[in-house]
Amino acid sequence: MTASLSLSRFIAGFWRLCDWEYTPQQTLKLIEHYLEQGVTSMDHADIYGQYQCEQAFGQALALQPHLREQMQLISKCGIKPAFPTTPKRYINHYDTCAQHIITSAENSLTALNTDRLDMLMIHRPDPLMDADEIAKAFSQLKQQGKVLHFGVSNFTPAQFELLQSRLDTPLVTNQVEISPLNMTTLEDGTLDQLQRLRCSPMAWSCLGGGELFSSTLAQAQRLQQVLTTIAEQHNTDDISQIVYAWVLALPSRPHPIIGSGKSERINKAIASQQIKLDRQQWFSIWQASKGHSVP
Ligand SMILES: NC(=O)c1ccc[n+]([C@@H]2O[C@H](COP(=O)([O-])OP(=O)(O)OC[C@H]3O[C@@H](n4cnc5c(N)ncnc54)[C@H](OP(=O)(O)O)[C@@H]3O)[C@@H](O)[C@H]2O)c1
Q1: Distance of CA 31 to the CA centre of its chain
Q2: What residues line ligand 1, using a CB cutoff of 6 Å?
Q3: What are the domain boundaries of the chain?
Q4: Domain 11-172, CATH homologous superfamily name and number
Q5: What's the pTM?
């Protein structure tokens, strides 16, 4: 039997790894920095960086292979983008058939330079998804020891329950967008379902992918103002810390995924665990997001 999966509260996100143009040594330094700070869970997907990010991570890991035992490697599959490097694909689409899931997982193992994934997720719900097919792929990967746990990403509660109904082990998470810029999963039953199941979500783009700092839209402007005020009350000048504290306050106990490649921003994110917002501060952010008070 596989031991249960223990993720760090913050997760390291590697979607943007290739944008940072790090050498393998620099990527290794980043990985070591994360591990030193107690962030042991590494979030990937087959398609990140046009299929290059997992490989870049794997090259760095090859410099210090013993670090593999100190981390949880997470990947995703199911999206087939029409990249310039995939000329046979003329349209972005999803593929959750068993063969694609198995092939993608095996490719991730090779790229990441590992013999097992701690978790594999279906990246996006697929309208052509046959839950029995996915269950077949999961079962084979698990039996072969190639993937230890499974999860989903961007699934509605109904899609989560459908897939779960065909599996003999619990889905470990639903990785969803959680941000003051996008509160959909707080309102559509997604986080309620996860709280009921005591299954913690992973939270992507908590900072809106950087939009929180750069957007000139009214919602972002309102948020910047309120977050700055609350940041002053907590003796910090970094509004991202207040955003993480807002996400961490959710009772479904989300695991925020850090998207920055800069160690000082990573440190600030992790330190936000010390910041506790009171309800009025939490709802001030809710109100700034909505542009109106609670009814
Ligand atoms: N499952 C899914 O569908 C899905 C979708 C999207 C993302 N994800 C996962 O979630 C992770 C995080 O997503 P994300 O990268 O969108 O997270 P994010 O934290 O919302 O955004 C990160 C971006 O914000 C910038 N940023 C951070 N702090 C900043 C500051 N103080 N001032 C200005 N810019 C700042 C970062 O730039 P610097 O690098 O310069 O700091 C980076 O470009 C990804 O790596 C991926 O693992 C999953």
Answers
A1: 16
A2: 13-16, 43, 153-154, 175, 204-210, 213, 240, 257, 259-262, 265
A3: 11-172
A4: NADP-dependent oxidoreductase domain (3.20.20.100)
A5: 0.98
